[in-house]
Amino acid sequence: xxxxxxxxxxxxxxxxxxxxxRGAAGQIDKLAEIRRSMMADRxxxxxxxGFPVTLACKVNVPTVVYVSxxxxxxxxxxxxxxxxxxxxxxxxx
Length: 93
Description:
Layout (H helix, E strand, L loop, with lengths): L1 H7 L22 H10 L5 E4 L1 H7 L5 E5 L20 E3 L3
Parallel strand pairs: 1-2, 2-3
């Protein structure tokens, strides 16, 4: 679905978009290492799924939350739903 929406906005794999899925297989302690690796690779944006990953990745790089990360205001991921602040945006449903 994400790639379809990006295509509707003019972004296409292999043309002007690269997509590199990475995961920690539930090992939260590996998230910082993965984030550092992606930053070293000069990734332009992180697309995250869930609270721990979003929290680990929202530093320094624009981060899009693609699916629910719980209550982002209560967990202090964002300042408010209307104005998330910082580098974080997305679907907080």
